[in-house]
Amino acid sequence: MTTGDPKQIVHAADHPPFLWWRGEVIPWDSATVHLTMVGWSAISAVFEGIRAYWNPDDEELYVFRLEDHLKRFAQSQRFMRMKQTYSQPQLAEAITGLFRANGHRTDAYCQPLAYMARTVPGYLAAEGVPSEVFITNRSAPSNLGSGKASRCCVSSWTRISDNSLPPRAKAITNYQNSRYVSTEAQLNGFDSGIILNDQGKVAEGAYACIFIMRDGVASTPTRTTGILESITRECLIELLGDMGIRVQERDVDRTELYVADEAFLCGTLIELEAIASVDHFTLGDGGPGPVTKALQARFEQVVRGRDPKRTHWLTPVHAKAGAPA
Ligand SMILES: Cc1ncc(COP(=O)(O)O)c(C=O)c1O
């Protein structure tokens, strides 16, 4: 709970004081549902993961690509045939308002989640049920520039596909696939796994998209390879272009991972993380390669509002929500 100046708000160890539910900012502990909602209720839930970056010079928290995340959120609800209860501008206002209510003045992460509002389980074939939405946020320090590099393996699991569980929808159920991949990777002593699609081509990481560098050219699997249509991936394609690096969106073979000069994973939560090795084949010197490092630095400039060309990707939290920086 909180009193007084938001700057003085002390966050509880594991959650901030407020979340947003059914159109209101409410105390975290008062957001409860009946036990019978647990279980099947998640089968049709969809969500977004959105980052916000603090800029101490501007005294501003910038939400990164908010409109694009809300567009994908709406698309995911559409796949579920949910009736959308809130418009994208309403959700944008809710997200910036919640950051303000929680007094966030550090890098942060936000998750809106939509589920079927009907409270009785058993809506496996429901259509046109209104969505209910709750939004949480939390501090999430950026790892850009940490120098971290992940030891990856190629997973024995196959990526979900468009005719089974469409990867284009950010549905909670899809993450069982990611969970199998990550758990297997970690049990086998790796940091994370890379998944091949049903054609045997590289799809993505467990929770992130992937780029490889070979002979000065960046390659990343196409949007129809079974990836989540990643917003970070789109940004990096543009930023690599700015750096004069050619980008190919194409099929990537498993063995290309073994001979890449460098490679990295990208996604909202993970940001841009170097791959140290794949199946024990070390890439470069095992640390972030030169392109990965340069791209991380450029990305950090952008997300913190220090690239005047890209301020349209940012929504300031403390200025009027929705206004360009
Ligand atoms: C399965 C999966 N693929 C890719 C991504 C990267 O997507 P984005 O860059 O939009 O966060 C994520 C992260 O959200 C993910 O969960």
Write the layout of secondary structure elements.
Elements: E1 18-21, E2 24-27, E3 46-47, E4 50-55, E5 60-64, H1 66-79, E6 82-83, H2 88-101, E7 108-116, E8 129-139, E9 149-158, H3 175-187, E10 192-196, E11 202-205, E12 209-214, E13 217-220, H4 231-242, E14 247-249, H5 254-259, E15 262-267, E16 271-278, E17 281-282, H6 290-303, E18 314-316
Parallel strand pairs: 6-8, 9-10, 9-16, 13-14
Antiparallel strand pairs: 1-2, 1-8, 3-7, 4-5, 4-7, 5-18, 7-8, 10-11, 12-13, 12-15, 15-16, 16-17
Bound molecules: pyridoxal-5'-phosphate.
Residues 49, 178, 204, 207-209, 228, 230-233, 267-268 line the site of pyridoxal-5'-phosphate.
Description of the structure:
The chain has helices at residues 66-79, 88-101, 175-187, 231-242, 254-259, 290-303, and strands spanning 18-21, 24-27, 46-47, 50-55, 60-64, 82-83, 108-116, 129-139, 149-158, 192-196, 202-205, 209-214, 217-220, 247-249, 262-267, 271-278, 281-282, 314-316. It has 325 residues and is of the alpha+beta class. The protein folds into 2 domains: 6-139, D-amino Acid Aminotransferase, Chain A, domain 1; 149-303, D-amino Acid Aminotransferase, subunit A, domain 2 (D-amino Acid Aminotransferase, Chain A, domain 2, Alpha-Beta Barrel). Strands 1, 2, 3, 4, 5, 6, 7, 8 and 18 form a 9-stranded mixed sheet that branches. Strands 9, 10, 11, 12, 13, 14, 15, 16 and 17 form a 9-stranded mixed sheet that branches. Strand 16 (271-278) and strand 17 (281-282) form a beta hairpin. The longest helix is centred in the first third of the chain and has 14 residues, at 66-79. Residues 1-12 and 321-325 have low confidence and may be disordered. Pyridoxal-5'-phosphate is lined by residues 49, 178, 204, 207-209, 228, 230-233, 267-268. Residues 49, 178, 204, 207-209, 228, 230-233, 267-268 line the site of pyridoxal-5'-phosphate (PLP).
